């Protein structure tokens, strides 16, 4: 089991620390030209706690009766783009631990839209009955019900991907893309494929002291977090005995009651996983997972993540966190959002101070449909070893994304984008 996990991490969740290099750019698939015959309307807002007024991150904003959706950023902000002829849409806003809210589209046709969410009232008597049992049995049932609970057809999904690298608190690299995700059935042995529809990137190598820390894997970093499609990368049905599972306090999403299960690997000799599973109390579907990798064993952790580095440099991960959210449509669940946050320490020989790099990648499904997929030519798919800052070219103006739904950038990234756009305009 450990060897399989290490293989994945070396293959995808790895970084390069090396002198600046160039590579041939990826060719994105062609999209219809934005014009007056293809208009859209755009709305913005902010999701907050109704009592504390703190922002709510990872709230799902969905157009009822459609597969159009987006997600709120770390500041609770979101943008939503709809076809111009959609006049009477009902918008659903949901978040873990909060009551789901539904609002007419007219509500968003104003300035400074604020959506205040109320925390869910816990009525969990029937849930507590089940907690007298073994949490491992619940997880085993969750895994057993994959075929019944998750989309068992091929699906064509549109997703927005963002990847940032910071040195200290300064943004040094930004890559974004609208992707087409060819999602295979959840019990299929076939891997998912990704094609890039539209992308932009910018890298300030002057802030890297002649070195570039780069993330290998691009959108695959967030795709492989889908533990129900790729359970071998966390725990298989026959490997559950390698973990301990304990019940935590239940919670809700809207009116849906969720079991919460804490888990961790039993063996701690090597880097080991621990986290929380949020499981629907009626269907036993995994709705959300948040987990981390303990990296106290620096030597092994460094080998797991570092693909290439110069002599005289030690680099190791100091903080590794993942999140995956699933969404439901017509009784079936599917991958909706994935996030990976990695922090690395870089120590130079004979230098007193080290450098810290933060790598953040996230992908949100913004639209999807069940389809009998016709696979495009091989060259239109990106490879799991892609390095976005090398293989994607260009940056553009504020209207670059057109009618595509994206994750709103947080304030730090927005400042970096504005500086890039100003530089382009000069």
UniProtKB/TrEMBL annotation:
Q: Does the keyword Transferase apply?
A: no
**Where does this protein have coiled-coil stretches?**
none
Under Gene Ontology molecular function, one entry of this record is: carboxypeptidase activity
- Please give the InterPro entries that the UniProt record associates with this protein: CarboxyPept-like_regulatory
Instruction: Alphabetically list the UniProt keywords.
Output: Carboxypeptidase, Hydrolase, Protease, Signal
Annotated signal sequence range: 1-28
The name this protein carries in UniProt is Carboxypeptidase-like regulatory domain-containing protein
One Pfam annotation, family name?
CarbopepD_reg_2
This protein's record includes keyword DNA repair: no
